[in-house]
Amino acid sequence: MAYHWTMPSILIKSYRMGKKAGGLYINPKKFGSLSKPCMKEMISFLNCLSLNKNNDDKCVRQKDLLSACMDAQSNKNRKPWGSINYHLQRLNRGRK
C-alpha cells in the first residue's frame, strides 16, 4: 500500500495488485482543535441515559439543556465553509 499526500490533511491510499485504488482519508488531528460548544451538555445527557438504562423520561432536564445549547448554536451566524464531501469529490475528480 502506498500513500500519497495531496493536502496537509487528506491522505490518498492507493492499493496495488488488483485491489481498490484511491480511498480518501481525512486526518482527524486537524479537526481536533475545533470548538465543541455543547460537549458538556451532551456528555451529561449520555451519562444520564447510561445510568437510567436508556430511559430518556428520567433525563428530561439534561435533554432540555442539550436542546437549548444546540438551538443557541444554530442561531449563531457562521461563515459557511462548505461540505467536506463536496471538496473531497472535487479533489477526486482531478485524479481520474
From TrEMBL:
Q: Where is the IMS import disulfide relay-system CHCH-CHCH-like Cx9C domain?
A: 35-72
GO biological process per UniProt: mitochondrial translation
A Pfam family per the record: CX9C
Q: PROSITE patterns annotated for this entry?
A: CHCH
The cross-references to InterPro entries, in alphabetical order and at most eight, read: CX9C (IPR031731), Cys_alpha_HP_mot_SF (IPR009069), Ribosomal_mS37_fun (IPR017264)
Name the Gene Ontology molecular function terms of this record: structural constituent of ribosome
> What GO cellular-component annotations does this UniProt entry give?
mitochondrion
Query: What name is this protein filed under?
Result: Uncharacterized protein LOC110412585 isoform X1
Q: Which organism is it from?
A: Herrania umbratica
> What gene makes this protein?
LOC110412585
